TrEMBL record:
The lineage of its organism: Bacteria, Bacillati, Actinomycetota, Actinomycetes, Streptosporangiales. PROSITE patterns: KS3_2. Keywords: Acyltransferase, Phosphopantetheine, Phosphoprotein, Transferase. SUPFAM superfamilies: ACP-like, FabD/lysophospholipase-like, Probable ACP-binding domain of malonyl-CoA ACP transacylase, Thiolase-like. GO terms for molecular function: fatty acid synthase activity. GO terms for biological process: DIM/DIP cell wall layer assembly; fatty acid biosynthetic process. PANTHER family: FATTY ACID SYNTHASE, SI:DKEY-61P9.11. This is Acyltransferase domain-containing protein. CDD domains: PKS (cd00833). Residues 8-433 form the Ketosynthase family 3 (KS3) domain. Pfam families: Acyl_transf_1, CurL-like_PKS_C, ketoacyl-synt, Ketoacyl-synt_C, PP-binding. One of its GO terms (cellular component) is cytoplasm. InterPro entries: Ac_transferase_dom_sf (IPR001227), ACP-like_sf (IPR036736), Acyl_transferase_dom (IPR014043), Acyl_Trfase/lysoPLipase (IPR016035), Ketoacyl_synth_C (IPR014031), Ketoacyl_synth_N (IPR014030), Malonyl_transacylase_ACP-bd (IPR016036), PKS_Beta-ketoAc_synthase_dom (IPR020841).
Length: 999
């Protein structure tokens, strides 16, 4: 026997999820095992009512010696909307498929793989699922259509559905080898990963008991236990108990798992599969020789001696022949290389939960992996007298009759998992504990501010998720930093989002308040549904946002801000001879323009760097007055040295204009502001148009006072800007020649981010930003409102981020948003004299809620992945209830009657002359009818595909619209990503022969 460790990369189990009798998760399953619980119960009397006639039910019920089984709850429930599956299709999908879909999604979450990262990957899928009992229910109900054929007629489509739903591009196959099927899937998955053809593998199995047929066959064969319990290893074992189960695991090469910081339950170091052939004398009986050969192959494949194995999770059904065969084969092999006194413990989870049949191998694998992880071997239950084989001389096996610590042995802990079945296929997997990982020391953030993101597909799921996270955070030993990192970097982010922001306190209380229906100040979002990432616009205001102490906290707490600020500091020092960092750290107010503007420019450039480092990158830049210098620097049109030259040289010249002018904010539109100026237009002008109701007047101080006084008497809001010169007015003309000379060598370039010039009122590439531009930027009006309106005119969801130490423009941007009715919002970066990092995280929370995907690894550097609460499914019932008579007549699913909606009965001519609203109502009713949804659940902002429309339904829907309206609606149009409301409008134009605008 070769005992040299295999050089091949072990396969890591990085994610797992399950539904088992009495356990809805892997941790709950472990609690059942170590708690030595028995979750087998009595067969629910109504379990087979939908598939059997009353007469047939009575017949099988009387023939079952022990009416025992392990059953799952709510198998008729499914969260179809999470997977964009229509109610029409969900009703026709085998509940086994539905169950494994949810469990696989949970396993992927448990592995810490966001779905966008998984999509398109070479991920293999292997599934075990017994033939559908649900198909017969659908057939008898008259619901056998294409969706039923795909969803319930063939177990092989389950793997394909998983690959489709998660966009997986590796091999995808359903398998059938009776009770050894799921462990066969593990074997094939490992071979696929070791070949290098796939980078990840998912193995899943599901078993639901929906009909009595197999019960009768097994009862006739005497395979089922009269005592109603699986008593593996007991001298009086009398058969097994059938159970329902669903398990899914995620596998990955260990080297990649360690490099990616994944959790590792255990590693697979070897596998083997074979068949008894004719060795057992009958097809359905276990064979000692076949199992012995399989075990030897598995340990040779693993490169370890059987004597190194401390525990074997046996197939262990509790049948007399099955136990005898398995124990005999293990006894022949597991003693090889074993030290005296180091017996191999053996046990079976079937004593706790019953026999999951095709899922049994995965159940055993999860149990063994958890045993390795926790270094505990759970007890095998219901053993009164151990099997006589255990007492034979030289027997290396001992039954694990009590829960006990993992034996202390040299080398890594190793376990085996066996499975066999009626097909005579045998399978064995060799597991080892994962290698110890030396954790590099990291800086503990202590009481630093945090941002915890949560998301869901359904508005009811989000508060439930909040409560689950609150419970997790209240668990002793949890690390808030790692939870925030994991929730951000290692989870999928759905359309409905919230974020909790705080500084130094745990967010459990805020989460509980949100879960109870409140919206604490620390919680951002919770109701906005992001259809995708918002377009991001960085806005850089002019002078006035400065305050004593700004930037100090960020220089100490954020490396990106500090690095960018040092770069700006060097450039300013080269121009002015003083350090902006030193000035920000002292307590003397910034007063002179030659200090204020360079300091604000440095703050803006450095704040923008933080946003970009956090993954919020601008699609457009807008600068306001001096803010255009920072915008040009961030765009790349100016280097930091060039940006410093512009802001420093110009502000130094402006110091010479001190006392020559004044500027006032007035809440008037541009026309009314001009009217207020009246005859003083030679001395006062509108220097800035901020919004539809806000302007800034600039000009001579005495003339300005004569304009402002009557406005105040009329109740118009007026506030003086804290400057003593008048920019964007004739009063700055004296510096023209000196400024043009100072910037004559400036050579800008095209930037990498477009910039909407508030001087030229158009998007520029940056090459025009020479010395002449910066003089005109100082002299001519700021057309800020026009720039914002140009952005809003596109009608795309938009996030304006104000890049400044205190918000000056967010309110006026919100004014324009309110006027336009556009899906947009404005968020500030910092607030005067408030904690800076926490303020920035509040802004980032708004960006996250609006659909942005922050770079969580940079927000939480050094964060480690920790398991998080599972998704809060919002399930609905999808089931066919047959009539109770012996020969049920075909039934049809409920539909929404047209008679309740008269507008849906219009013929084509009526609709052609009807209003767009009536036509839209007609379409909504048709869409709802085919999807199986109530009309009020159709969201006009969501495409039909996300409501569950597929090509089959689209073809039927197209034919129905053609019948109703005599209009050809292409299937591709119905399957387009356009929102439903927009699609309805375009179809109306088609019906009324109005040319349809191209999207």
């Amino acid at each position: 026997m070769n005992t040299t460790p295999s050089p091949r990369d072990p396969i890591a189990i990085i994610g797992a999820a399950c539904r088992l009798p009495g356990a809805s998760s892997v941790p709950a399953f472990w609690d059942v095992l170590v708690g030595e619980c028995d979750t087998v119960g009595e067969i629910p009397v109504d379990r087979f009512a939908s598939s059997d006639t009353n007469q047939a039910t009575a017949q099988w019920w009387n023939r079952i010696a022990a009416r025992a089984g392990g059953f799952l709850q709510d198998i008729d429930q499914f969260d179809a909307s999470y997977f964009s599956i229509s109610p029409h299709e969900a009703l026709r999908i085998d509940p086994q498929h539905r169950l494994l879909i949810e469990v696989t999604a949970e396993a992927i979450d448990d592995a810490g793989i966001p779905l966008p990262d998984l999509a398109g990957s070479r991920t293999a899928v292997y599934t075990s699922c017994l033939p559908s009992d649900y198909w017969d229910i659908l057939r008898r109900a008259g619901l056998y259509d294409m969706h039923a054929a795909v969803g319930a007629g063939n177990w092989g489509t389950l793997a394909g559905r998983l690959s489709y739903l998660f966009d997986l591009r590796g091999p995808s196959m359903g398998m059938e080898a009776t009770c050894s099927t799921s462990l066969l899937g593990v074997h094939l998955a490992c071979r696929e990963l070791w070949s290098g053809n796939s980078t990840l593998a998912i193995v899943g199995g599901v078993n639901l008991l929906l009909a009595s047929d197999l019960y009768l066959s097994l009862a006739d064969a005497g395979v089922l236990s009269p005592s109603g319990r699986c008593r593996f290893g007991d001298a009086g074992a009398d058969g097994y108990v059938r159970s329902e189960a669903a398990v899914s695991i995620v596998l990955k090469p260990l080297s990649r798992a360690l490099a990616d910081g994944d959790q590792v339950y255990a590693t697979i170091i070897g596998t083997a599969v074979n068949s008894n052939g004719r060795g057992s004398g009958t097809l359905i009986a276990a064979g000692v020789d076949g199992q012995e050969a399989m075990l030897r192959d598995a340990y040779e494949d693993a490169g370890v001696a059987p004597g190194q194995v401390a525990y074997v999770e046996a197939h262990g059904p509790g049948t007399p022949r099955g136990d005898l065969t398995e124990l005999a084969a293990l006894g022949r092999v597991m003693g090889e290389g074993r030290k005296a006194g180091h017996a191999c413990l053996v046990g079976s989870a079937k004593s706790n939960i019953g026999h999951g049949e095709g899922v049994a191998g995965l159940i055993g694998l999860v149990k063994a992996a958890m045993a390795l992880k926790h270094k505990i071997i759970p007890a095998t239950l219901h053993v009164k007298q151990p099997h006589p084989l255990f007492d034979e001389p030289g027997m290396p096996l001992r039954l694990a009759r009590r829960t006990q610590p993992w034996p202390e042995r040299p080398g890594p802990a190793i376990a085996g998992v066996s499975s066999f079945g009626l097909s005579a296929t045998n399978a064995h997997v060799v597991l080892a504990e994962p290698p110890a990982v030396s954790e590099a020391p990291r800086r503990k953030p202590g009481s630093a501010p945090f941002l915890l993101p949560l998301s869901a597909r359904d508005s009811q799921a989000l508060p439930e998720m909040a409560l689950r996270y609150a419970d997790a955070l209240d668990t002793p030993g949890t690390d808030l930093y790692d939870i925030c990192y994991s929730a951000g970097a290692r989870r999928s982010h759905h359309e409905l989002r919230l974020a909790v922001v705080g500084g130094g306190h745990r967010p459990a209380a805020s989460l509980r308040a949100f879960g109870a229906g409140a919206l604490p100040q620390s919680v951002v979002g919770g109701s906005y549904r992001a259809s995708g990432p918002s377009r991001v616009v960085f806005v850089f205001p002019g002078q006035g946002s400065q305050w004593v102490g700004m930037g100090r906290e960020l220089m100490d707490q954020n490396r990106v801000f500090a690095r960018r600020m040092r770069e700006c500091d060097r450039a300013i020092k080269a121009e002015m001879g003083w350090s902006v960092i030193d000035r920000l750290r002292d307590d003397a107010p910034l007063t002179a323009t030659s200090e204020v503007q360079p300091a604000l420019w440095a703050m803006q450039v450095s704040l923008a760097a933080v946003w970009q480092d956090w993954g919020v990158t601008p699609d457009l830049l807008i600068g306001h007055s001096m803010g255009e210098v920072a915008a040009a620097t961030v765009s790349g049109a100016l280097t930091v040295r060039q940006g410093a030259a512009v802001i420093c040289r110009r502000s130094a010249l402006l110091d010479g204009l001190s006392g020559s002018g004044a500027m006032w904010v007035v809440h008037l539109d541009e026309q009314k502001a001009q009217e207020a100026i009246g005859e003083r237009s030679g001395q006062v002008c509108v220097g800035v148009v901020n919004s539809s109701r806000s302007c800034v007047l600039a000009g001579d101080p005495d003339a300005m006072a004569e304009v402002i006084e009557p406005l105040r008497r009329q109740g118009v809001f007026c506030r003086q800007v804290q400057v003593d010169y008048a920019s964007h007015a004739p009063q700055v003309e004296p510096v023209r020649t000196a400024l043009l000379n100072a910037l004559s060598s400036l050579r800008p370039r095209a930037g990498t981010v477009p910039m909407h010039s508030t001087l030229l009122d158009r998007v520029i590439d940056g090459a025009v930003l020479d010395g002449d531009y910066w003089m005109e930027n100082l002299r001519r009006p700021v057309r800020f409102a026009s720039a914002v309106r140009a952005v809003l005119a596109d009608a795309s969801p938009t996030l304006f981020v104000e890049i400044s130490p205190h918000p000056l423009l967010s309110a006026v941007i919100e004014d324009e948003i309110a006027v336009s009715g556009t899906d947009a919002t404005a968020v500030p970066s910092l607030h005067r004299e408030e904690p800076e990092l926490e303020s920035l995280l509040h802004g980032l929370a708004h960006a996250y809620v609006r659909g942005c995907d922050p770079a969580w690894e940079r927000i939480y550097p050094g964060g480690r992945y920790v398991p998080l609460p599972s998704y809060a499914w919002q399930r609905k019932r999808f089931w066919v209830d047959l009539p109770e008579d012996t020969l049920p007549a075909p039934v049809s699913e409920p539909v929404f009657e047209e008679s309740a909606h008269p507008e849906a009965t219009y013929d084509g001519a009526d609709l052609a002359t009807s209003s767009p609203e009536a036509f839209s109502q007609y379409l909504m009713l048709r869409f709802a009818e085919f999807l199986g949804l109530p009309p009020d659940q159709l969201d006009p902002e969501v495409p039909l595909t996300l409501h569950g429309l597929d090509s089959v339904l689209a073809a039927k829907l197209s034919a129905r619209v053609k019948t109703d309206l005599a209009v050809e609606v292409r299937i591709g149009e119905l399957l387009s990503p356009r929102p439903l409301g927009r699609l309805a409008g375009e179809l109306y134009k088609t019906v009324t022969a109005v040319p349809v605008e191209q999207p």
